[in-house]
């Protein structure tokens, strides 16, 4: 009995220490480097193209989607000079014919991309941050009327560009892909093109952070409501799962523990750790009700993706012709932006990407021993496929908790937790030498 009490006391100390792990000063420096002035300048330039509609001109040097994507590429090329040759800038494009839906003429679809190659040749993980370059007004096929798209989705693209600037000098084991996709308003066309490429080439995508409207938090917000909120949407069960996997998930009670949910929890934990004055809300849907975003083609291919977006949407300034009616000004204009809020949300992305890219890959072959009935839980795993982990966190929470509540740090690859698997959910994550955590891995069953 004394031995058991001593073990539980030691466990409590280990958990407490793990929960109070200090911030990584390198990541804090990246977060502090995010500039509100830079974000504002990016959006002012994006708005200056008149319209960025996917069906607008790709040849005009000053107006339309072509001029906009060329400017984004020029920004990427400028930041690539800081990377020591590790940043590759390119335009992923293809010609599309009319589809009888939201494309009524032949177009050249293009994604502006910069790939920051990781420093570890054995680590093939890729982290993607995206925003959509195209804008629209009330008529989804109107490609000529002014469509400033300041928030939808100038804010997401500005965050992508700023993240590329801030992280261009970084030297992470994992790679990061920054992309301004086109064709979102016409049916997620650019994201689908990129997701198809990733699937065909078997990319090891660890996370897709899709930022779509992250620059306006004022609409419908109650006065003195307190901390600004950022929504993170994530699916529960992957549509990519087979019936067998779905049955296993249901049998083990893991409906709330798919890969996207683990990424969403990670965004909340790391974002709130490094960034002040933000309340990250986990929304248990792949996207807003009956709507979709650019992470969806990736999750449909089995990749892990989430959407980050304003907590409050202002429909007067979204998908609207520019006009004033009954004293109300309509349109997605820059005057309705909240740049402090955009800076905060961009910093969340930077913190999450840096922490994840700096981590070692997750442990592999994570198992839970169920050979015998017990009120304790034995977990086993193997070292990551690349890099060197200084140890591992065992995460746990009650089944009703939306987030991981406790961590146990160990340098071993086997650990017995004095808690019942009936009452708790468990996961294991790698911890790098600098203290950066990988995404958690839910154990499989070992009999």
From TrEMBL:
Gene Ontology MF annotations: metalloexopeptidase activity
Keywords of this entry: Hydrolase, Metalloprotease, Protease, Secreted, Signal
InterPro entries per the UniProt record, alphabetical: FN3_dom, FN3_sf, Ig-like_fold, M28_fam, Peptidase_M28
Gene Ontology biological-process annotations: proteolysis
Keyword Hydrolase attached: yes
GO CC terms: extracellular region
SUPFAM superfamilies from the UniProt entry: Fibronectin type III, Zn-dependent exopeptidases
Broad class of where this protein is predominantly found: secreted
PROSITE patterns: FN3
PANTHER family: METALLOPEPTIDASE M28 FAMILY MEMBER, PEPTIDASE M28 DOMAIN-CONTAINING PROTEIN
Protein name: Peptidase family M28
Upper taxonomic lineage: Bacteria, Pseudomonadati, Bacteroidota, Flavobacteriia, Flavobacteriales
